[in-house]
């Protein structure tokens, strides 16, 4: 096996991907892996080591900046409030009677659920929308 500079860049790239998979938290290490991959491609094209280093820094740094900016624009919702994770979020149901403490028992999807009112003002009967789910408790707002 030829241990050229390109091979080392690919090893670094693979190591960053492996660390990202092990952490599983963010994509920042994958962005740095993009920089290492670009340096490996530069090495294959015959560019010198200094060009490879600059390319790895610029591409990796730019990818991290773009990813960070994207995360700021589209913050993640917690799983109990994310309609992409919990398909009940955003569904509507009928609440006939609220207890004095702002809770109710509702029938939804063929089962009895506990519900809690999270809207403004006093809860009243009628159509409500599921805004979040905490265990077996639906958090409802007026529709």
Automatic annotation (TrEMBL):
Keywords: Membrane, Transmembrane, Transmembrane helix. Residues 86-139 form the NfeD-like C-terminal domain. It comes from the Bacteria. The keyword Membrane applies. The chain crosses the membrane at residues 7-30, 42-67. It holds the Pfam family NfeD. This is NfeD family protein. It comes from Roseateles amylovorans. The lineage of its organism: Bacteria, Pseudomonadati, Pseudomonadota, Betaproteobacteria, Burkholderiales.
